[in-house]
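Task: encode each sequence below as structure tokens.

Item 1
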Amino acid sequence: MAGIAKVRLKWVKNRSLDHIIDTETDLKAACLLKDAIKRSPTGFLTAKSFADWQKLLGLTVPVLRFMRRYPTLFQEFPHARYANLPCFKLTDTALLLDSQEQSIHQTHESDTVERLCRVLMMTKSKTIPLQSLYPLKWDLGLPDGFEKVLVPKYPDCFRIIKASNGIGCLKVIQWPKEYAVSELQRSKEGGDLGDEYRQFKRGQTVLAFPMNFPKGYGGQKKVRVWMEEFQKLPYISPYEDSRHIDPNSDLMEKRVVGVLHELLSLTLHKKTKRNYLRSLREELNLPHKFTRIFTRYPGIFYLSLKCKTTTVALREGYQRGKLVNWHPLTRMREKFYHVMRTGLLYRSKGVHLLSPQEILLNSVESESGPEESEEDEVGAGDECYEDEMSNLDSEGSDED
């Protein structure tokens, strides 16, 4: 069988997705700092303690400057013994937001357990090192300290074990059949697409990935032919054992697309950093240069270099600059970001005059960015991006 054609497409910038990645980088950093303050036995953090966290948090500015931007969340005060050492504790507003977040975690705990099980079920050994899961905690909607507060509550689902190298790992114990159904399969089960899924279950057809090409690509004949050939290949569930598939075959390439599609579908914001996926490469049975998939299939994935890092997003997860499916935690995070923006606007006007209730009762306007277009232009700065794309699969650590 001849291999499917490979069409190299030029990268096209998507301003709305770039804007989302930009704003949610600050949102994620603020959430992680909030959790760090909560974990601190003193109830506050000193500027010295987080001085070297900038890279870890993915920020483009020093952490001290970042925290001072958002007085609605972080209250600054001098250290009791060292007057020139700034300290930060959580405001009443931040504490109120955190209590609402914890309530959502408890209410939707079964959803979190299923999501975590499904990530583990995609791996070869049904095991992932905890150090590889920690960076994905925010993206997957796991509670802070999930290995201590969530995992012990479900001994029939999870177990923390030690690998041969002594590293702590999380292992899935059960294999619930209802979990081993991919998001792509679930999306085809109901509604107008139900017939397509029933035919797929009988082996009479294949499942097609949703495609949303940048402007101009979808109408190109060579692109249409390429994607039709790709879509006709059998769909391999990411929960099936793939070790028998020829690693150099087109079938394996489609299976890799399916795994990456599923993993991104399981994230709350339908996106994550490229390096977080790379740390799972061996367990997910992905090829060494799997990140080429992101640029080879721009109708499915979008790759961004915003905030000096590489983020991959699932195109179908967004429509006109907004998430298509909102999880309660993403709604909560939208409110959190609104409070951040309020602090930025009022920091020179005495934000202490606003009570937590006044801030939280304000209408929460979506900060997701431009709505007027999904596909944008190849413009200034693209040559720099193209250079980065050519080095996408180079070995070694990323800046993430």
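Item 2
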Amino acid sequence: MRFCKMHLPKNDTTVFLENESGEEYILNYIAERTALSGGWKAFCAANNLHEGDVLVFHLVKPSRFKVYIVKGNGSSQGDGEFGIPSSGAYGKEIISEPAEKDVKSSKKAEPLKLLPVGHQEENNQENGLIAVENNKGYVADQSENESEDRASETLRVIKLSGPTVDFNNVKGIENFRILLNGFAIDSELSEHHRTKYYELCRSQSSFLHSNLLNSINHKLAVEIIIGTVDISEGIRSSKLSSSQADYGVWDKTLKGFELLGMKVGFLRERLSRLMSLALESEEAMESECREVRLEQARVDEEMKSLELRLLKLKETRERLDDEMEILKENAEKHELTFQEAVNAPW
């Protein structure tokens, strides 16, 4: 809800969804409910969506989203519209209870909760996960933070299974391979992004993508890697005058990557440090500027007072000059009268 209110129009409008294949769908957005309406059912059907699937919406332009689909069981096949998919190749089982027919309009189905398989089958699969639907529902006016916490918890639980790859075996960029679920995705990165990503991984002695959700497809993984590299370069090129808004956007993006399993905590820590330093500098500058501005105002006021006094002194000087001229004329007249008296006949 908070994202919609910050980044989407305040009135009902049309939004465009583009899937990974480039197919475009037009939907109605209802601002008051922050919900997608007309066209959503067609989008779900066209992309074979089922309960348990995770959708990542990336706002690329105003009212236009790029949508990445992460299948809940690693397969697009289901048993009916809300069927029960079998265990997939990714070691997860999704159990979906039938939806209630008469659900009150003030309630909606509760988001899926993810629990370790061991809760039902101990030692069945060490890193497996199980998604269980809860149809009890929750009140529509549930707090925004609680809804976000549920989504965050869901994304944090689904992690890549299998052992962590040892980055120390990578001797240089020439044998640096970016693997996702056993498949190399190097070729989908430019040489620049591949090099910069290698440097980031080397700085942490770890593959930053090794904990990505195991059901994330390669296209989304590539976008995450590119986004991580671009933000790291943005951080490196930052100046004290850089916009705080940029820092906020970068941090939110990295937070999203982190929820999907990307190891970007070190970048978020650096951003936090930069934002703190920038804020301290801004506060110090504001305090110093405030004092300087007050001093400037005092000096300006004094200058105005001096200018007014100088103007008055100039006027007085001009009056005195005029009086001096009159005195000279009078002196000349007196001298003339005196000489007339001196030269008068005896």
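Check on item 2: The radius of gyration is 38 Å. The longest strand covers residues 54-61.
End of task.
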